[in-house]
């Protein structure tokens, strides 16, 4: 699925949700504000809100993380959310957003 400024999908095992946010090459970790909670996500890049809201379902905080990466010359902020209910399919990344079945 996707939203304005990001894309998301389930990992191969389905136990994790992966969010990709395209960023400029010169972005550093200090320019990121990432607030991961059990039920919510708030992510800003250089002060600009990219993703905010209540998650579709609970995540495991200790097993969730983020990283910076690149693919085909594009830099990305990558968020990895470990699902509490591992076998549950997410219809959307955030509650109240249009449903897009994870794939």
UniProtKB/TrEMBL annotation:
A GO term from the CC aspect: cytoplasm
For the keyword Transmembrane helix, the answer is: no
Query: GO terms for biological process?
Result: protein folding
Where in this chain does the record put each CS domain? 1-94
> What Pfam families does UniProt report for this protein, alphabetically?
CS
Name of the molecule in the record: CS domain-containing protein
Q: Listed GO molecular functions?
A: unfolded protein binding
Q: Which PROSITE patterns match?
A: CS
- What keywords tag this UniProt record? Cytoplasm
Coiled-coil boundaries = none
Protein localization: Cytoplasm
Q: Which organism is it from?
A: Zooxanthella nutricula
Q: Which residues cross the membrane?
A: none
Which InterPro entries would you find in this protein's record?
A: CS_dom, HSP20-like_chaperone, NudC_fam
């Amino acid at each position: 699925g996707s939203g304005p400024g990001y894309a998301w999908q389930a990992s191969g095992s389905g136990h994790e949700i992966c969010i990709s946010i395209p960023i400029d090459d010169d972005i550093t970790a200090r320019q990121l504000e990432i607030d991961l909670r059990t039920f919510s996500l708030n992510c800003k890049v250089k002060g600009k809100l990219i993703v905010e809201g209540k998650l579709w379902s609970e995540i495991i905080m200790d097993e969730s993380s983020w990283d910076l990466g690149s693919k085909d010359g594009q830099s990305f902020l990558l968020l990895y959310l470990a699902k509490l209910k591992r076998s549950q399919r997410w219809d959307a990344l955030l509650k109240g957003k249009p449903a897009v079945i994870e794939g």
